[in-house]
Amino acid sequence: MQPKKTKYRNYFKPRGFPNTLTKIHKLSELTCFALITLESGYLNGRQIESARQTIRRKVKREGKLQILIFPDIAISRKASAARMGKGKGKVDHWITSISAGQTLFLLYGINAEQGIPALHSGANKLPLKVKIYQL
Question: This protein's superkingdom (predicted)?
Answer without folding.
Answer: Eukaryota
